[in-house]
Amino acid sequence: MLPDEKGRFGKYGGKFVPETLMNALDQLEQEYCHYRQDPQFQRELARMLTEYSGRPTPLYFAERLTKQLGGAKIYLKREDLNHTGAHKINNALGQGLLAKYTGKKRVIAETGAGQHGVATATVAALLGLECTVFMGEEDIRRQELNVFRMKLLGAEVVPATSGTHTLKDATNEAIRHWVEHVEDTFYIIGSVVGPHPYPMMVRDFQRIIGDETREQFLAKEGRLPDEIVACVGGGSNAMGIFYPFLEDPVKLTGVEAAGEGIDTERHAATISKGRPGVIHGSLTMLLQDEYGQVLPAHSISAGLDYPGIGPEHAHLADTGRAQYVSITDREALAGLQTLARVEGIIPALESAHAVAHVLKVAPSLPSDYSIVICLSGRGDKDMQSVMGYLGVER
Prior knowledge:
The chain is an alpha/beta fold. The protein is 44% helix and 18% strand. It has 16 helices and 14 strands. It has helices at residues 19-35, 39-53, 63-69, 88-101, 115-127, 137-142, 144-152, 167-180, 198-206, 208-221, 236-242, 270-273, 311-319, 329-343, 349-361, 383-390, and strands at 8-9, 12-13, 59-61, 73-78, 106-111, 130-136, 156-160, 185-187, 227-231, 251-259, 275-279, 282-286, 323-328, 370-375. It has a six-stranded mixed beta sheet, sandwiched between helices. Strands 7-6-5-8 form a four-stranded parallel beta sheet, sandwiched between helices. It has a two-stranded antiparallel sheet with strand order 1-2. Strand 5 (106-111), helix 5 (115-127) and strand 6 (130-136) form a beta-alpha-beta unit. Helix 5 (115-127) runs parallel beside helix 7 (144-152) and helix 9 (198-206) crosses helix 11 (236-242). The longest helix has 17 residues, at 19-35. It is globular, with a radius of gyration of 19 Å. The mean pLDDT is 95.
């Protein structure tokens, strides 16, 4: 399976980094390829995923939502029930363990919504590693609770004050820091982005979502689902649940953040409105101006507020294997409220984009059509922002 020997998914991917990082990336690729075949590494990772994170997460039939919409059967893959509240822990455990096996004493990470930062800080505490997390000033404001959680877990949180003060700028700061400390520091990237081997490695650590979904759906329905829907910013939860179904006749739908509308300048719809370009070490679809300068992204969700997307998603879009649609801030907020009131589950604003898309399409589909939504995280972290958007006074 892709990527090829140069880390390319079709024309996307690769390594576009300073010379000082090339040796570190080559070494990381060799170490990852070794340890993913190592029985001891895999046993320890499997034990942590089961006993520490709480896997497997349930595949839940949303019966009341299905009845209310009156169309397709809707299932939820409950990644929100993971320890720390999101799918991010799957990848953080994998990369954190790899840092430990390769002798690194210190890890760094970037974060937008804070879930990857919390997951990395958690794993660093678990494994006895020093931890620094880079986060945009705007996201620090939006995700105050997660910032406190990271600090409580022992991590240093460093604000990124350049650009739009969001995930893109936090990633820039993390890469700059890694260039200066590459000898003793492991960079835990939180999504299927960045230079090779990160998109492949993060996908592999997240594919457990799709592997479990496949087994659980077969056990419940005796067949595969008709469609899988997941939100995409960088795209790690989507790639994790899509990957085991790539060779099957299952429709794959990624949901981008349309923000205030893709006809405005305030959105994060990278595939719908972007063009090929280089960001954070790889060639992918990118929001950019006529001179190739990266354009600011916007989303109600800090986790989707990113101007690029994982290169494998760009390849899946090019080849038509997956479709990518967009949902506005307003629609996502409505999706969050509907799932909360009908099923008693408050999703993260990221996941609410996937829910909102299904709310639009499910009523027109037949009752024997089944959709699985990847519920990538829980909404606790977003309550302060949601209160603000709904005009609730504290």
